[in-house]
Amino acid sequence: MSRFFAERYRDLAPYVPGEQPRDRRYIKLNTNESPYPPAPSVAQAVKRAAESLNLYCDPTCTALRQALGELLDLEPENLIMTNGSDEVLAYIFLAYGQRPFLFPEHTYGFYRVFCDLYGVEYSRVPLREDFSIDVEPYMDSRYNVIFANPNAPTGRDLPLSDIERLLNASPDRLVIVDEAYVDFGGSSALGLMGKYPNLIVVRTFSKSRSLAGGRLGFACAQKELIADLEAIRYSQNPYNVSALTQSAGLATLREEVYYRACAEKIKHSRSVMTSGLEALGFTVVPSKANFVFARAPGLSGRALYEGLRARGVLVRHFEKAGIEDYVRITVGTPEETLALLAECGKVLEEGK
Ligand SMILES: *Cc1c(COP(=O)(O)O)cnc(C)c1O
Questions:
Q1: What are phi and psi of 336, to 5 degrees?
Q2: CB of 39 within 8 A of CB of 258?
Q3: Model-level pTM?
Q4: Does the 40-254 domain belong in CATH 3.40.640.10?
Q5: Which residue from 102, 180, 241, 242 has the least number of CB within 10 angstroms?
Q6: Ligand 1 centroid to 4 CA: how many Å?
């Protein structure tokens, strides 16, 4: 750290992304990417768009918001497009950080990072023993609420009735639902948007739309909220979604059938992975996401992570009190799933 670094950032503990090693080929089950490539038409669209890279991209993302609006039955004014959903999450903490935030003790790590970065007050609420969210402690309307649903890294789904309770607790605080994993079997709060002016739903193309490297995310809310977020966006980075990404996003939206089929394959592999791990004696948290959160019998989370890594399989381990015995394993292809199960079996054997 240099002596020029602003005082207020000296204690910053930045977000730590999952590793993207290049040293050898791994079966990569550590960052919840899709194992399936984008539909072929996406690469073609990007190639066409590349011919006009001398021009700035459309700062309004109009075509993309129109197409997305048609798909989700929303007006373009209900949508803001961003450089990954991480960016719109940043805008949300910037825009609404005057009121402190509540979020689960174990959830997406970036919420805490943004609060620290932007000086937003927050408090973390423990999960239940089974890793589900108990909404009772969130009813305190002095706080905005944010969580992922399905939650990460647990994969557990919160029922919509609980989300409505949070929304009804007070119209003066916001409830932000991060639906990064909703396409793998979760229940979406999108249908509540018309009824609740204090709801923001955040989504991404990174997981179920095979576009993690393209960086495309968005938020849905009533028009006034979107106008706030647009004011922040135009004050920070009006050309936030590149021309290549806008064209990739548009092409993606024309391939619904393909991406739904990918999600179905992943759901099937998830159930194969879950029962395979259980057969090996693992404890597996029921998941509605494209990953499972699991604990090996008689082996620490770190030991399992390291054992798998040595065998060429990457999973994610969090060195965090309460979840340190668990690893988060992304659901891959059927072949990757079988390989994972075989390697887990070998690591358990070695550990004996
Ligand atoms: C992956 C993920 C994101 C971020 O996705 P990007 O759109 O790639 O920035 C946001 N929230 C949760 C819960 C995630 O798991």
A1: -65, -35
A2: yes
A3: 0.97
A4: yes
A5: 242
A6: 31
Mutation to probe ligand 1, out of 87, 108, 293 (largest number of atoms < 8 A from CB) = 108
Residue 23 pLDDT grade (very low, low, confident, very high; cuts 50, 70, 90):
confident
Any atom of ligand 1 within 6 Å of the Cβ of 31: no
CATH 3.30.300.30 fits 18-37+257-351, yes or no: no
What stretches of the chain show up as alpha helix (H) in DSSP? 40-50, 62-72, 84-96, 110-118, 160-169, 223-234, 243-253, 256-279, 301-310, 334-351
3-state secondary structure of 336: helix
pLDDT at 352 over 80: no
- C-beta 301 within 6 A of ligand 1: no
Distance of CA 32 to the CA centre of its chain: 8
Residue 141 has which token pair?
């309307």
Ligand 1 atom with least separation from CA of 152:
13
* Protein residue with its CA nearest to atom 12 in ligand 1: 180
Tokens (6 digits) for 174 = 């916001």
Cβ(152) to ligand 1 under 6 A? Answer: yes
Report the SS3 class of residue 330.
strand
Distance 34 CA to ligand 1 centre (A): 13
